[in-house]
Amino acid sequence: MGRLRILILGGTGEARLLAEALAARDDCDVLLSLAGRTEKPAVQPVQVRIGGFGGAMALADFLKAGSYGLLIDATHPFAERISKNAAVAAETAAVAAIALRRPEWQRLPGDRWREIQSIPAAIEALGQSPRHVFLATGRQGAHHAEAAPQHHYLIRSVDPVERPLRLANAEYILDRGPFTLESECTLLRQHHIDVIIAKNSGGTATYAKIESARLLGIEVMMVARAPTMVASVETVEAALAAIDHLFPPAMKRGV
Question: Whole-model pTM?
């Protein structure tokens, strides 16, 4: 059977750690695919491909042409279109697939969460009275705020919002986590934030805003994830175990 060829759809810290673990093995070849949306991506431990595939069918063709045996969707938990295309492509190409998704944040005592299904639903739920909103959903969802221009928005993203929003009261912050509890509390106080709109991304890099909201008694509109369409694991270790279950070492060595 020879060496297992693995395509990882990445862009997360977990994808990088998984690629690093697989790079240390001698029984597989790994290609890490990045969407190319981040202007300064981190250095990666394996061969990297930048850019989209052009849809599910094009990705299926790529998997077949490259004789890939496994597709790992380790994209951001809210990269829903990419994840859907990955699931369809894997099925079309008859390639095994798993998703690596870090655990969701869980509500703790003191949290004032309102579970919301989408960013537009969160914007609508703000109500008519002007509020000071920390929109911490990244640049791609920021334009939804234009539906409720009466509020004051603080918008934080890694890369700039692609065009300035048509809002009279919007401030932009370019920054990348991890963030500290102290800095997040200071930010929320300085901007008089009374509600945060956040995606339930999980992980530690951006959790400080959730801790800060708990400490300061600030409401959080928590946007829920869509369910995965393929078998899902929560850790790099679980992903490695799943790979060995799907492709036992003897099979990968061609024994």
Answer: 0.85
